[in-house]
Amino acid sequence: MDSFTPTKRSTLKRLPGRGEYEREPVYQILDEGFVCHVGFVVEGQPFVIPTGYARAGDTLYIHGAQASRMLRTLREGVEVCLTVTLVDGMVMARSAFHHSINYRSVMVFGRAVSVEDGAEKWEALRALTEHLAPGRWAEVRQPTDGEVRATLVLALSLVEASAKIRTGPPVDDEEDYELPVWAGVVPLRMVADEPVDDPRLTPGIEQPPHVLNYTRGVRR
Amino acid sequence: MDSFTPTKRSTLKRLPGRGEYEREPVYQILDEGFVCHVGFVVEGQPFVIPTGYARAGDTLYIHGAQASRMLRTLREGVEVCLTVTLVDGMVMARSAFHHSINYRSVMVFGRAVSVEDGAEKWEALRALTEHLAPGRWAEVRQPTDGEVRATLVLALSLVEASAKIRTGPPVDDEEDYELPVWAGVVPLRMVADEPVDDPRLTPGIEQPPHVLNYTRGVRR
Questions:
Q1: What is the pLDDT, as a whole number, of residue B220?
Q2: What is the span of the domain harbouring residue A93?
Q3: Which of A42, A83, A140, A193 best probes binding to B when mutated, by most B CB atoms within 10 angstroms?
Q4: Is the residue at B10 inside a domain?
Q5: B62 membership: H or E segment, kind and range
Q6: How does the average pLDDT of chain B come out, rounded?
């Protein structure tokens, strides 16, 4: 299936032209990002918690300590809204009213399940580490049985998802284009600075390729 | 009041050492960021929507079209959880288990109210534009009465808030420090590229100072 079937909750109500229900652009956004905001409800109270994630195929994984309140709540099968947002620029219009932000965001709806199968859990942990830096998993000490048990991994199937994208220059009212005001976009992106060695790093260990020239997503 | 009084929902349950209830660090995070994730509940279903915001004093403002489903829901006075997250780095440990992300996040709880007072609404719109780029408001065409009426501005009092901060190098198990694995932090930050002129920009209008060398927050 190459596209998501829009549902009531995943369909953009306003500005439907910014909506995207194809799998490929949704997955590109999910793969470029690495922090999501997980929304869930406890006794009527919404919580929005930032956490890392990784995609493997048509599944999103999040993880944490078995004691995590968020994960313990989610594993009960409550409704989740998981949102990933990448900010691409400040949109400066000639009028205050038409200022905006260029961004790409994905919302995923569904109910998470705890990953109990050992092989899937291992693959999820691998994906979560690799999503931070491809090549990392093979270089580090992999989890012990105790660490795997201490970790709660939740899976959210990518069945109900949509992206919302704003791109391009400002859109001003026609009569404002003649105003003597600069308008355009200030592009924004996340960059990595030089890796900082752990103060306790054993002398002689060099920075591996996967942390040098670290980048995410497509260069623009 | 220089600090927030922790409540049940704003108190960090795990890793309490990462919690921060002083106003100043919370406001620094809110002022460096400019996109928040707003969580609310509609008929039991959580939604998490990214949107711009600005702080003025002890109030956070968000805004949008009167037709916005999110804003129309929030103005009814439902419970909100508003989260701002700044990502500072990838934390690379010697073990997969201890990988982490350096970040600063703020969660605000409460109920939003619609700003109906004309002067406060004007100040909120000014703050929202200035928060994108200080100096912008004075240079652009300011809102007409019609635009002000078409805009819904909501205020969320900064009464119940907390920050969560992870910083510094990885923390490995003691016996792992002798492993021949590189460990450290890959610092991440958001940068602005050169401003891109609107294709319809009137020739001769130069890029103003507030978009040249655009930065957010404290330089590191």
A1: 39
A2: 16-187
A3: A140
A4: no
A5: strand B59-65
A6: 94
User: Which residues are CB-contacts of B135 (< 8 A; sequence separation ≥ 6)?
Assistant: B208, B209, B210
DSSP A172-190: --GGGGGSS---EEEEEEE
Chain-centroid distance, C-alpha B215: 15
Is B127 inside a domain boundary? yes
Q: Look at A169 and B139 and tell me if their CB atoms are within 8 Å.
A: no
Residue B19, min C-alpha distance to chain A (Å): 14
> Which pLDDT value is given to residue B215?
84
CATH of the domain at B125: 2.30.110.10
**pLDDT tens string B31-66:** 999 999 999 999 999 999 999 999 999 999 999 999
Sequence letter at residue A165: I
Chain B CA closest to residue A151: B97
- In a domain, residue A25? The reply is yes
Confidence class for position A220, pLDDT limits 50, 70, 90: very low
Question: pTM (2 decimals)?
Answer: 0.95
- The DSSP code for A70 is H
Closest alpha carbon to A14 in B84, B116, B150:
B150
What pLDDT does residue A219 have? Answer: 41
Q: DSSP readout, A16-28?
A: GGGEE-BHHHHHH
Whether A147 sits inside 8 A of B14 (CB atoms) is no
Task: Please state, in angstroms and rounded to a whole number, the distance separating the CA atoms of residues A197 and A199.
Answer: 6
Rounded-to-integer distance, Cα B22 and Cα B14, Å: 18
- For residue B2, what are the contacts with CB-CB under 8 A and spacing of at least 6? B22, B23, B24
Q: Is residue B163 part of a domain?
A: yes
Intra-chain end-to-end CA distance of chain B, in Å: 29
DSSP for residue B144 = P
What is the rounded end-to-end Cα distance, in angstroms, of chain A? 29
Which amino acid appears at position B211 of this protein?
V
Q: How far is CA A11 from the centre of its chain?
A: 19
Split into its structural domains, chain B has a count of 1
